[in-house]
Amino acid sequence: MDWNLLLTQFMNGLQLGLLLFLLASGLTLIFGIMDFINLSHGSFYMLGAYFCGSVVARGGSFLTGILVALVGAFIIGAIVEWVIARRLYREDHLDHVLVTFGLILIFDTLVHIIWGPAGMAIPLPDFLNGQITLGTLVLPIYRLVIILGGLLVAGILSIMVTRSRLGMLIRAGASNRTMVEALGVNIHRLFLVVFAIGAAMSAFAGMLIAPITEASIGMGNEIIIIAFVVVIVGGIGSIKGAFYAAIIIGLMDTLGRSYLDDLLKVFMSVHHAETAAPALSSMLVYILMAVVLAFRPQGLFPPAGAR
Amino acid sequence: MLELAGVETFYGSIQALFGMTLRAEEGKVTTLIGRNGMGKTTTVGSILGIVPCRSGQITFLGDRIDGKPAYQVAQHGIGLVPEGRQVFPNLSVRENLMATATNFAGLDDPWTLDRMLDFFPALKERLGNMGSQLSGGEQQMLSIGRALMLNPLLLILDEATEGLAPLIRREIWKRLDLLKQSGLTILLIDKNIEELNRIADHHHIIEKGRVVWSGSPAELQANPGLKMQYLGI
């Protein structure tokens, strides 16, 4: 067995997991507290990449790009909540899906108009572009940056949710929204802040991955589906659940794609294994979701006391 | 201090309050009594704006509060201890007390966490426990404490002692006596007429969504027919 390859794939899985967490943590709060299904959450992922890319293309530094993208996504997230989402909380989930699908089309088209149909490559600054060699192991620095950045944000978020007053109100709102309001808290303002923070985290994920994949129209639309799987598997409204589910699913998806055929070859013919593995590996995360829904419909780590 | 005039409230197309008219005087304990399903909790919901009334007027310290969202009503200085206690199960006792703590009314000598723990010493040992891990009595103390931490001018208790063991009830009544002595205005709902008679200044009997009788505890005592007819005791 090639241990270098395994470790590389493991790092790739971890990286995907952390990106998924950045998306899913916002999604799970918005879903869990506001009971709002936001398909367009992936659009902020795309916007983050384009904002950052534009700054870099105009000669700004990558770090400036990150800052601009975070602030930009926060503001656009706040506007979307203020103008659109707020009117829909009381409506049916189907309405959420229809409206936010419409938002995806609008954002995709706006990006097309502003930045053109081609993708946008984002060159990395030199200090992030190198590789680290550990013995026989070669690791790209930027992969480590993504992993550390993801862990850092996960840590900050976890402290915010467990320690700060905003976090207390978010958790209280997830369990009993009416009571939070009856105790004098403007729940609309709370929702606005949660929505905007979620948008900024989604954008952060998008700009982290963009130097590897480049920014492109619709880049958020594939990952948002898996992010929803993460939310369901982790337990709706649970940051902790989103974290563990994202890591599990990131690893499962990446390792499944590279090793499932070897695994299948153990108990079926090479020909069959090579046919079945690609089909099966792309289904793996959905199979996991189906199993979780069948045996633990509240998710792996449902928020305590959620009803 | 608080005044309801001709309040009508509906759940969808079903009317629950039929011209509810009552008042709570500053510094007094006012009660709502009556059988289940007669509109006591709906009245509380209408005051807070949780179940907005369709017509009628609600004023608090001279300000119209009907039609305002719940958070704004609370910010006028109304603290709610809701039916079923409704502590936040996924927050610790400390967090339950602190998450919404404030001083909207700008009281000079506001409640603090320390003062609250002296007032309800039972909560001191439970500070790190989750709301869901508390006994019913502890939850009720926490719910009252949480409302007091808003430093309200009016405290509304919907079912102050329902479902609690006798010893705990006595404890809660003692605390309510202290709150009354401190001059806090209280709107109280409970089924224990004896205790209510002791603490209350004014009763309202509620029947089918309106006040059918109001008067002092002495007047209620002097009129056993009322209790029989409206309270079933």
Architecture overview:
The complex is a heterodimer of chains A (307) and B (233). Chain A is mainly alpha-helical. Chain A has a single domain (10-295), classed as ABC transporter involved in vitamin B12 uptake, BtuC (Orthogonal Bundle), CATH 1.10.3470. Chain A has helices at 3-34, 41-57, 62-83, 93-115, 126-129, 141-163, 165-175, 177-182, 187-213, 219-234, 239-265, 270-295; strands at residues 131-134, 137-140. The N and C termini of chain A lie far apart (47 Å). Chain B has 233 residues and is of the alpha/beta class. The model of chain B has no long low-confidence stretch (mean pLDDT 91).
Features:
heterodimer; A: 307 residues; ABC transporter involved in vitamin B12 uptake, BtuC; 12 helices; globular; B: 233 residues; 6-stranded mixed β-sheet; 4-stranded antiparallel β-sheet; 10 helices; 35% helix
Secondary-structure content class of chain B: alpha/beta
The low-pLDDT segments of chain A are none
Total number of helical segments of chain B? Answer: 10
Using the alpha-carbon principal axes, give the shape of chain A.
globular
The helix-and-strand class of chain A reads: mainly alpha
Secondary-structure element order of chain B, as H and E?
Answer: EEEHEEHEHHHHEHEHEEHH
Greatest interface (CB-CB under 8 A), with counts per chain: A-B, 22 and 27 residues
* Total number of distinct structural domains of chain A: 1
Percentage of residues assigned to helices of chain B? 25-40%
Summed up, what is this model?
The complex is a heterodimer of chains A (307) and B (233). Chain A has helices at 3-34, 41-57, 62-83, 93-115, 126-129, 141-163, 165-175, 177-182, 187-213, 219-234, 239-265, 270-295; strands at 131-134, 137-140.
Task: Itemize the secondary structure elements and their pairings.
The complex is a heterodimer of chains A (307) and B (233).
Chain A (H helix, E strand, L loop, with lengths): L2 H32 L6 H17 L4 H22 L9 H23 L10 H4 L1 E4 L2 E4 H23 L1 H11 L1 H6 L4 H27 L5 H16 L4 H27 L4 H26 L12
Antiparallel strand pairs in A: 1-2
Helix pairs in contact in A: 1-6, 1-7, 1-9, 1-10, 1-11, 2-3, 2-4, 2-9, 2-10, 3-9, 6-7, 10-11, 10-12, 11-12
Chain B lengths: L1 E10 L2 E11 L4 E5 L6 H9 L6 E6 L2 E2 L5 H6 L2 E4 L11 H6 L14 H7 L1 H4 L11 H13 L5 E5 L7 H16 L3 E5 L3 H7 L2 E6 L2 E6 L1 H5 L2 H8 L2
Parallel strand pairs in B: 3-8, 3-9, 6-7, 7-8
Antiparallel strand pairs in B: 1-2, 1-4, 4-5, 9-10
